[in-house]
Amino acid sequence: MEIVEVQFKAQRKEFFKNARDLYLKTGNYCIVQADRGEDMGVIISIAQVSKGEVEADMKEVLRHATDKDAEHLDEMRELEEEATETCQKKVDEHTLPMKLVDVEYQYDGNKITFYFTSDGRIDFRELVRDLAGVFRTRIDLRQIGVRDEARRFDGMGMCGRRLCCATFLKDFEPVTLKMAKDQNLPLTPSKISGACGRLMCCLAYELDHYKKLSKDVPKVGSKVTCFGGEHRIDKIDFITPAVILSDAEGNQIHVLMEDFREELGKVAGPQQESKQRKFGRDRRRKPRDDRQGEGEGDA
User: Fold this and answer.
1) What does DSSP assign to residue 183?
2) Distance between CA atoms of 87 and 84, rounded to whole angstroms?
3) pLDDT band at 142 (very low <50, low <70, confident <90, very high)
4) Other C-beta atoms lying within 10 Å of the C-beta of residue 212
5) Which among 210, 213, 204 is positioned nearest to 171, based on CA atoms?
6) Segment 94-114, tens digit of pLDDT
7) pLDDT tens track for 46-62
8) 58: closest CA among 7, 17, 1, 106?
9) Torsion of Cα atoms, 14 then 15 then 21 then 24, to 10°
10) What is the dihedral of CA 242, 248, 250, 252, to 10 degrees?
11) Are the beta carbons of 94 and 87 closer than 8 angstroms?
């Protein structure tokens, strides 16, 4: 059986089963089952699975979308602008500490979803009753985070491209400040924050590559013995990739990462052998000390 991933407004995605064996293609629009009705979206992926992997209550694709369906969906999108104004007025009347982000009509008009952000929990029962009285349909108020807000608004990132969350990014992965540190990026908030105000999702894209490059390489500021003397690691250039070293007199040298690792290996070899010889001498010396101690004790 086919499992179909369908995308709706603002990157909202859901999975449906193709129980009717329709001929489906990615990029085409279809009508699917929804809460108490039907919804319309575009197919973005299709996967073949066994029937045992399909949940019994999974909704299904009903039919292909027609030009008339597309026109009807456009009409629903126009109604969303009016619904936004109406909801914002009601929010102001109830003086609720919430920010209305977006409104989404279900294709058949049987449900309207209002997306909002807030710093805490809100009692919006009175607001729901007012909205239901105005629109005469099912009302769903859904609180979202700042990243989801950026996804629904869309926009351009500092890279000059559309926001990742509004294009190809399906799920939000945890992003930490350590990821920026591991890549030697400036920790200025304006440089590493996205449109949502949180750390940019792209900080995680190349992290594994940076970790691989910096493996077994001492941290910046460390002192190492190589190239005939003691040097300090001033910077690690991950783009080249290379290491910038400075000696006691402040002279800098630019060494390719591959050559630097090879040099560290040459230095570490003799040092390791020296440690092993010293360890062997200590082990041979220890029994004699023990026997001497026992003799003193007997006396």
Assistant:
1) T
2) 5
3) very high
4) 8
5) 204
6) 999 999 999 999 999 999 999
7) 999 998 888 889 999 99
8) 17
9) 60
10) -20
11) no
Per-residue CA distances from 163 to 29, 31, 172, 213 (Å): 24, 28, 13, 28
Considering the chain, what percentage of its residues have pLDDT values greater than 70? 89
Whole-model pTM? 0.73
Q: How many Å apart are CA 199 and CA 222, to the nearest integer? A: 28
Domains of the chain: 2-65 (no CATH), 72-144 (3.30.300.20), 150-209 (no CATH), 218-292 (no CATH)
Distance separating alpha carbons of residues 134 and 112, to the nearest angstrom: 12
Six-digit token pair at 131?
């909205």
| Type of residue found at 58 | M
Q: What's the confidence (pLDDT) of residue 240?
A: 87
Q: How many CB atoms lie within 10 A of CB 110?
A: 15
- Separation CA 155–CA 162 (nearest Å): 6
Extract the tokens encoding 132: 């239901």
Give the span between the Cα atoms of 108 and 88, in whole angstroms: 23
pLDDT of residue 220: 87
